[in-house]
Amino acid sequence: MSTLHTVETWLSSELAPGNNRWFEGPAVPDYALSNQSAIALTAPSVSDLTTILVTPGHTYQQMLGIGTSVEETTIHNLLKMDPASRDRFIQQLADKENGLGFNLFRITIGTSDFTAQPFYTYNDLPEGETDFEMEHFSIQKDIDLSIIETVQQLLKAAPDARIFASPWSPPAWMKTNGDLKRGSLKEGIEYTEALARYYRLAIQAFEEHGIPVCAMTLQNEPLLETDYPSCYMSPERQQELAIALKREFEEHNLTTELWIFDHNFADAMGYVTPILNDSEGYAAVDGIALHDYDGSPEVMSEIHAAYPEKPIYLTERSLWGTAGADRMAQYFRNYACSYNAWVTMLDSRIGTHQWLGQPGPTMLVQDADEPNRSWRTPEFNLIAQYSRFVERGAYRIGSNYGSRETVTNVAFRNPDGTIVLVAINRTAEEQPFRVLCEGKQFVATLPAGSVGTYLWK
């Protein structure tokens, strides 16, 4: 960490952001988590430079973590590696010195669309059968597919990491169409209670295997019905499920939090208000989960103003380049307490998944012909500019956003008192700027198309 009088600096630059050429092989950007010479903190002076005002006395939300998903696609690719290569890969995710330093991981309850397997849940039955008492419940498929073992390995490498879980679909026998794809939960409290029991058993099964689940979302993207595991769930039904699930958790001494919604900014306010305006719904809900595929991050500030006691989490979105790094800054400036990328590693044939579109490059890409070989894309570095330095328990602090024509930023104060400023230059020219904070200033220059992290006491 820095001394009192200097600012430590790291830079990463974008290179062909979001371009599929990253599936073809690695290339080296100008800056890749490159540690620069320390910058002096000096007395303030008169300046015409773009100025960022950092005010640590103005505190906002507290950070839970930054991380990625551990869906079956990534695990399927990992299992093609030999044990030593697999260990190195997991270290890259966990290590704060040489890797990403991630401390928050999303796992799936049953399969998602990013899987190499036939779709499954933990209670799949022959057509026409039901199992309200969950006598056939089992996470054995997760064990057989080495999902449990991989998450255990990850927790060993990052013992402070937190895990949260999301389901893509209830078991087919609970659904209106008898299928994991599309449909909705059958009407009737007996189905709501059966689903609550199913989720409670899943959380208990993970815990029995040494995987404590700090939180779960009640349904991934509840407004989407599509041709992979999905389930439409109205706010009224989700409220009923949250109340039933909270009761299940309390009866079985589970402290796992419940996060509602788990879908896009555009529909967020309309979805969460009927749940949180109800006293029982409000009491059952611990947080609000959001995705960024439609709408503006500013809705998070609106939700925060409406329900200030309910933390907000950005649970799914992958981003590219300095535009992506700036979008992350906007999440945090609008009260997100976390950020999770979606899908950690695809192979060089863009495999193996069952999503209905073509994904862009992930932070890491595996060589499909030589599975022990993988490479980082520039996104690895750009997300690490946040995840390596912003600690759990940090507070976002006051700073003026800046401008797209110069630099934008977001600032945090870590539990040990260090200040972290992440600044983004989306322009094609280098941008000099100065930072004023508590009677001191420093002057820095951010290269074109790059992100800088500045750390000081």
From TrEMBL:
Q: Where is the signal peptide?
A: none
InterPro entries hit by this protein: GH, GH30_C, Glyco_hydro_30, Glyco_hydro_30_TIM-barrel, Glyco_hydro_b
Similarity comment: family membership: Belongs to the glycosyl hydrolase 30 family.
Q: Which organism is it from?
A: Paenibacillus glycanilyticus
**Gene3D superfamilies from the entry?**
Glycosidases, Golgi alpha-mannosidase II
Question: Mind telling me what this protein is named?
Answer: Glucosylceramidase
Query: Pfam families annotated for this entry?
Result: Glyco_hydro_30 (PF02055), Glyco_hydro_30C (PF17189)
The Glycosyl hydrolase family 30 TIM-barrel domain extends over: 65-326
Domain Glycosyl hydrolase family 30 beta sandwich span(s) in chain numbering: 393-454
Alphabetical keyword list: Glycosidase, Hydrolase, Signal
